Amino acid sequence: MEIIIKKDALSGSHAAARVVARLVCEKPTAVIGLATGSTPLMLYKQLIHLHKEEGLDFSKVTTFNLDEYIGLPADHEQSYRRFMNENLFSQINIKMGNTHVPDGMAKDVPASCAAYEQAIANAGGIDLQVLGIGSDGHVGFNEPTSSFASRTRIKTLTKQTVADNARFFGGDESKVPHHCITMGIGTIMDARMNILLAFGANKAEAVAATVEGPVASIMPSSILQHHPSAKLFIDEAAATQLKLADYYRWVYDGKPDWQKDA
Hints:
Elements: E1 2-6, H1 9-26, E2 31-34, H2 41-54, E3 62-65, E4 67-69, H3 80-87, E5 99-100, H4 109-122, E6 128-131, E7 153-156, H5 159-165, E8 179-182, H6 185-190, E9 193-198, H7 204-212, E10 230-235, H8 245-253, H9 257-260
Parallel strand pairs: 1-10, 2-3, 2-6, 3-5, 6-9, 9-10
Antiparallel strand pairs: 4-8, 7-8
Helix pairs in contact: 1-2
């Protein structure tokens, strides 16, 4: 696990975008896993900038999103399909047929989840997965105690996650769906690289537990300690509870420039 501490969320997002851009340049047919929410927005804005200003080509890229609320149609203002269309897909030259988001309106949820897993396998697996982290350490919607072997499936959200996401529903928790479809932790761990973004003091405790705590299902993100290629991009505020923060800075600052984007 590589810990990359940047001054703020903007510089952290730019550093993460360089890793994604390098993959796309080196492998135009890359399969990329994507996340939603406020955390990856600056990453997506930077990728849009690289496409429009530097010609970063997404025409052969395939994407799979982590999750979707159950019961929200694709055109609902809070659906993750709509979020991705508005905040990334419509602003780059990706083929919409190559973008995949779980179907929150599936009549047969287990069958839909199995089909999603098969689609990932058929695409050759995920080369790079973008992740955020919840205040309780959840990744995707894999809430605390989720199995490390789990695959794409239905999950019930915790009260904390419902409360955290209420801001997207006008602050009304009653409007937040209580169920979702999410990639499993096993699915996430199958990605060849994972990059996790975490910004702000409210993520500091979860970041410290993820990086320096024991690997345990009560902190789902801690499993990334066992991933062969995991990069955490965090800002100074999110790094405040890390015991070895100075060491992580020293390691990253001493790397050659070419390796920082690898």
